[in-house]
Amino acid sequence: MHSDTIVVTVRFFASARDVAKRSEMKLELPPASVAADVLERITSQFPAMKDLRTFTRIAVNESYVGSDFALSDGDEIAVIPPVSGG
Amino acid sequence: MNRIVSDTIDVGELIAGVTVPQAGGIDLFLGTTRDQSKGRKVIRLEYEAYVPMAIKIMDEIEVEVRQRWPVCRFSSVHRIGVVPVTEASVAIAVSTPHRKEAFEACRYAIDELKKRVPIWKKEIFEDGEVWVENEEARIKRP
After folding, report:
1. Rg (alpha carbons) of chain B, rounded to whole number
2. CA nearest B129 in A: which residue?
3. From the list A14, A56, A78, which residue is nearest B53 (CB)?
């Protein structure tokens, strides 16, 4: 791994997994990346993700975060469509 | 205690777990699976969870409940995998000294679970399937 990038694991659930056609992937990002950058990257890779974006939340290491949350090398990012437990 | 299970929820065990001498009331909520969704016949329901985060958020909800009401014991369980129609997909049991707090605490817990706990339900119809989205979970990102 280059020291000028960070690598995170992105996990997809429910409808997001159907769109990405995978349950997880590694993503290499510039060091100052934030949660919103992950959404940008996955939306450009999987254009159908656009339909999900409005209400999709991001969790980092099992906690919900805001769009400007700063990411670190090794983080686990979860793409969380609106939940439907209960 | 808060758990994710992949088979039948044992309601008796759940109630036993919140039964203590200082409690004057136990409120139990069971969410059960319906055979209809917006007029379509559901043949099967499947739940999936981001398990470690789901348990973490269920634990956070328990902390919030305990901050607001004088809870003796609190327990919640969500089932994942295939849940046949009429069976419980979620159960929450709360014991408190008096009944009013038990009702309020249990209601808060199920309302928050439906908003925040990363669990998803897929409804399977004869002619297709759909991921359900709880209305209260359609939260715009900040």
Report:
1. 16
2. A15
3. A78
Record: contact A85-B56, CB cut-off 8 A: no
List phi, psi (to 5°) of A61.
50, 45
Nearest Cα to Cα of residue B75 among B48, B98, B89, B95: B95
DSSP A22: S
The helix/strand/coil state of A17 is: helix
**Residue A18 touches partner B, C-beta closer than 8 Å:** yes
How many C-beta atoms lie closer than 10 Å to residue B38's C-beta? 7
Q: Is B128 on the interface with A (CB under 8 A)?
A: no
**pLDDT value at residue B141:** 59
Secondary structure string (H, E, C) spanning chain B: CEEEECCCCCHHHHHHHHCCCCCCEEEEEEEECCCEECCEEEEEEEEEECHHHHHHHHHHHHHHHHHHCCCCEEEEEEECEECCCCCEEEEEEEEECCHHHHHHHHHHHHHHHHHHCCEEEEEEECCEEEECCCHHHCCCCC
Instruction: Categorize the per-residue pLDDT at B131 as very low, low, confident or very high, splitting at 50, 70 and 90.
Output: very high
| Residues in a beta bridge with B29 | B92
Q: 3-state class of A76 per DSSP?
A: strand
Two tokens, residue B129: 């399937």
User: Per residue in B94-129, pLDDT tens?
Assistant: 999 999 999 999 999 999 999 999 999 999 998 899
Whether the predicted model's global pTM rises above the 0.80 cut: yes
Work out how many CB contacts closer than 8 A connect A with B.
91
